[in-house]
Amino acid sequence: MTPNAASASSGPSRRTFLASTAVATAAVAGGVPLLTACGGSDSGTRDGTTSAKDAEKILPAYVASNVVKPDIPSRNGSAIGFTGKLDLATLKTSVAKKLGKGGRVTVMAPFWGSPPKQDNAYYTAMNDLIGVDVVWQNQDGNTYDQKLGAVLASSDVPDVVVVPGWNMGGKIPSAIIGKFADLGPYLSGDEVKQYPNLAAIPTDAWRRSLFGGKLRGLPMPAPSAPSMVPLYRQDVFEKEGYEVPRSCDEFMSLAKEITNARARRWACLDMKWTAFQAFGVLSGSEKPLGWNLVDGKLVHRIETEEFLEALEWSRKLFAAGVVHPDSKMGKNAPDPGPKFAAGEFLIYPNNISQWWGRTAEQAAQNPEFKIWGMDLWGHDGGDPTLWADQPAGIFAFVNKKVSESVVRDVLAVANVTAAPYGTKEYMMTNYGVEGTHYTVEDGVPVKTDKGNIEVMNAYVMVASPAATLAHPDFPEVAKGQVEWQQRMGAFARKSAFWGLQITEPARYTNLTNDVEQLEDDIVRGRKKIGDMQQFVSDWKSRGGDKLRDWYRKLLDENGSAAS
What we know:
By secondary structure, this protein is an alpha/beta fold. The chain has helices at 52-58, 121-130, 144-152, 172-179, 184-187, 196-199, 203-207, 234-240, 248-258, 272-278, 305-319, 337-341, 353-362, 404-417, 424-431, 449-454, 475-489, 515-523, 529-558, and strands at residues 2-3, 6-7, 80-82, 104-111, 133-140, 160-164, 210-211, 214-215, 217-221, 228-233, 266-268, 291-294, 297-300, 345-351, 371-373, 386-387, 392-398, 438-441, 444-447, 468-470, 492-493. It is 33% helix and 15% strand. The strands form seven sheets. It has a five-stranded mixed beta sheet with strand order 5-4-6-17-9. It is globular.
């Protein structure tokens, strides 16, 4: 049996939690800029700039939930935190009555692992709680983009389709606008108050759910505080007397001290993502997170000196032999967990969710094991310049062809799955049925074998509460995670396009497709910095400069999201 803990701060990622926050996307027609977070139309025609004031008419009213009070409130864009034990007798009720009307709803969503059978005890209990017959069409999360493209290109679209932000490339945003319903009539303004848990979803997450000027998505909120953490073996550091580095030079010195290839110990895995943070590189390699204003000029991350410096420092780590050989395999490298636990390397960057995940994995067989998160540093030893993560990255969409009764049933599902931690609905959504899927031992919910098989990433994909970190089995980890987010969030800035959904004109969507592979080739010594400089030069001539003009016009007409 494996301890279970709730972490709604981030969803599964195509990099298996290597990068947590999905890309910003949106809608334009015919290459003419349209700030979809501020309006738009299904027709794809442009009738002038849609103002932020008009967006307020589209967004749901925000009504904070007072059902449960967190132990650690959100600060600097962090998740809220819970650090106490669970008492099932004191769980609150956040859905006063069953809102579902007994209809049938099909949902296609990415799934990591082996999907359970449809008639399993968890699905049955959830459907009974909601009052809706949800039928899951789970698809392999690792190849979901292929399935998604095929389904959206067909006439056979399920009632609900979950789309992670990292799968929103190419024609997907246009398909979202063309295929999915406007939920505004059901949720805009005070309409959302029919669904209190949806009303408690932060406005920024809803703003990310505006596509083509309409409210189309049901969001999975995420913290805006950074989520990529340099994780390290704190127990080994304490035993060996290693100091946590505060600059890139200190990291290199420490890495050389740790590394002993003959003893099969290396300092770290590929540190590229930490390098980007240390050098203040604008977040994300995905569209449109690469753009921001620098001294009044709109620039892309790949054009900056900081970007090249981060790649060069990461390359030097490989060249110095301090990076574990597995990292040379790149994207196909094996799960880092076993070799991290064995001490083959002591540091690796990953999503904050792995802080708890690795702790739980090792709790029984390796009680001395302790993973912790390093505070990020500026490359020169000063404070870091960090960039805020997007406030939502995974969305559920409703087929525009379904009846109103189906839309209402979908919203009934979402109102349950968005229940806050500490409620009966949250426990059912995230843990299943007590006695069948989990037991509670000394205030800690422990999943049974059946729970580990059935209570997986299904219902949580429809909608989620405000970003939450709660680990009753390891409350010190939840506290550490939230406090890390709060410290790092103090250094995080919002880019000019933060929180907005933007779809680039189709002719530009593939311009940076090869950047990430080139980054990895440079870091591993297979390519040179000059190759990236040449790529940037070609990128400009192939459309990068024209895309800059497009974003500049978007910014001039609609203003900065960060202002």
